[in-house]
Design goal:
There is one protein chain. The protein has helices at 8-24, 26-35, 38-42. It is mainly α. The chain has one domain (8-42).
Length: 43
């Protein structure tokens, strides 16, 4: 949904939840790291 404005605080919360999920599943974390190399840089 590109037309929906995203609050930075809300977006950060979603990212935190995703990172938590990645920590629980190393396999998914590796796959996401390959698809989104900027994720590692952001943390």
């Amino acid at each position: 949904p590109v037309g929906i404005p995203v609050d930075e605080a809300q977006l950060r919360r979603i990212v935190e939840e995703e990172i938590t999920a990645y920590k629980l599943t190393p396999a998914v974390r590796t796959r996401v790291r390959v698809e989104r190399p900027d994720t590692k840089e952001s943390r």
